Each structure stands twice: as structure tokens, then as C-alpha cells.
């Protein structure tokens, strides 16, 4: 009798244990399903991809509908609550508020936290104009090396032997500044004639160095030489990205200008942009990026100085008339947090000086990048694809507008897929104009 009762009791315990195990299994399964659902949800993925610091136009939860009910947002004023956006030169120079923001599932489990800079409204005029860019380097860049043949017929490399490399920037020769290839040629010849050696001050990467070079008399040219090819200026065609209608500050290209031979950033001494007219298109194809072929307009309706050459473009002040027929007035800036996967429009010139509107799609947004490759842009416009094959050289800087807001500019083309390329966030370009204004104010 007692054994039957014990068996019965044990059986009931096993049933209870089985029920508990099943409940736990169901809970684990449901939890896994929920986590999978979270991870696959585009809105949740966008939240997770946000960097630890980002800018928004207004402090609202990034998730809507169902997500706004289960994910709670906690906002705490940062220690640097009010910051200056600019020095006052930009017409949109107004304050911004910094907040520490934490996203929590059910208000308990932390998902994401970071510092948010809540921006006041800012408006700019989208560009699209084809521009001719000319600039003079700060110093003279070494773009190649060539042997000097002496009287005995021996080939020598005086500058190379002294430690001067391709990409270095010549600043002074025998304490005299050099700003052109002719300055270098004359200074080297004079040093060879008078002293037989030259003290060369130059910039190597981020270091300022000085070396003694012994020029060799070249029988072919009848002059003393040190065996270098140098360049003191650069020119090309690009696209204007934006203009502030009141301060006349502009941004263009969306990427840094580098030397064609060394691929190194060009340090600018001075430069300018003027209108350019496009008279031919070299269509892009796999492995061979296309190109706009244009000429500078001598009677340009506008002209701009080049004051900065940065990772996200060139910047300076504009004078004259800059007109985009699609935008009679300035439009709102779309901050990084507002950029999304989906359709957008770009504005660029493919014939003459006429700005045209074309359809594109933002295929991917990369929030954690601070360079000029923040989103992947794909051309979807049949007419643009037919004429250019997609994104081509000279299109760099073409403004990107999404949902009526200026969100960025085209910067690069994929070599093996001309339909696609990169774009830069407009806020990354604006960060450079802020730094420019701070330098002016100082």
C-alpha cells in the first residue's frame, strides 16, 4: 500500500517536473524567436548600428509603433549641455543640446546608449553645378624621380640618394621658399653653381626634415639638377555640393583632392573654383570608371576660394550668382540619423551647364564611418544609366536629397560596378565648415 502511494507520488512529481521543463522550453523558444525577430527588424538594426555619438534634428525615439511601446528611452543632459555649432559666420550657426541617451527593452534591459547632439533646424541650397577646380600646392610636390647624366655619362639620383622621396613636399632651398617648379629649378641650378650643394627643407608625411643635396651638372640641359619631377598645381572638374545663401560658404566634391601620381593629399597654398561646362561623357563600364569631360568657363557667373582640402571635400567662400533651378530656396539638412535605405535624388550636370535631377537608391547606410564613404548609392534612373553608365568621375559632390532634405553628396564609384558608389553624410561635410569658422574666429 505504502509502495503504491510512493509510486503515485513519484509519478505526480515527474509530471510536475515535465510541466516545468516544458514551460522553460517554451519560454526559451519564445525568447529566441523574439530575439531573432528583433535582430531581423530593420528599425532595430538601425538603432543598434548608430555610433556612440550622433546628431539628430529633434530628440525623438528612433523606433515607432510597436517598438516605441516596448523600448523606452531615457534622456539625461550631458555635462556639456549647450555647445556652439559655429562661430557665427554661417547663417545657420545656432546652438545645439547634448544629451546622454539610453535605449532599454521594457525599460529594464539596456540595448544601446550614447551621446546625442540635438541640432536646431539648418537650411542650405543644394548644389549640382559643374565646377572647375584649380589649386596651387603649399610648397612643391615631388611626383617622380629621374636620373641625371653627368659629364662621364653616369646616371645619378642626387635627391633620392639624400633621402627625398616621391610624395614629399619641397618647402625651401637654401632658406628660400619655393612655390613653383621654376622656383625649384632656379634654386637648384644656383646652388650647384655657387656652392656645389643645397640645403633642402621638405615635408615628409607629417615631419619637417632638412637634407643636403649635391646637384649634378646635366650635360643634356646645361643646368645643375637633382633628379626630381615636381608639380606645383592641380586642376580638374567636380560638382558643387551645397551653398549657405547668407554666409556664402560652400562645400564641394565630398572627398579629398589627391595628387594624380602620388595619391597623397594636396596641401593647398591657394586655389579657386569656377563654373565648368561639360562637353562630353566617357561612359563607365566594369573595370573602367567613366568621366565627365569639361572646360572652364572664362566668364563664370560665380567664383569661390578654396580654403580647406579635407577627407570630406573642399570648402571656402563663394561670390557671384549660384542658381539651382530645382531649389529656389534653401532646404532643410537631413542629419545622419535621418538617412535611410530607400529612394533619393541626385543633382548633377551631364551636358553644358544644365543641372538635372536623377533617381537613385540608398542601398546601405553605414553609421559608424567618419570618412567620405557613409552610404552606398545606386543609380536607378534609366536615362542617366544610358548616358553615363551610372556614377562617373566629375560627379563627385553631386548633392543627394531624400524626403526633401539634403542628406549628403556622391563621392566615389565602384570600379567593377559603375551603377553603384559611395556617398558622404552632409553632416560630415558641415563639421569641416564648423572647423573652418573656428579657425577664422581665432
UniProtKB/TrEMBL annotation:
This is Stage IV sporulation protein B. It comes from Desulfosporosinus metallidurans. The keyword Cytoplasm does not apply. It comes from the Bacteria. The keyword Nucleotide-binding does not apply. The chain crosses the membrane at residues 26-44. The lineage of its organism: Bacteria, Bacillati, Bacillota, Clostridia, Eubacteriales. It holds the Pfam family PDZ_6. Keywords: Membrane, Transmembrane, Transmembrane helix. InterPro entries: PDZ_6, PDZ_sf, Peptidase_S1_PA, Peptidase_S55, SpoIVB. PROSITE patterns: SPOIVB (PS51494). Residues 207-442 form the Peptidase S55 domain.
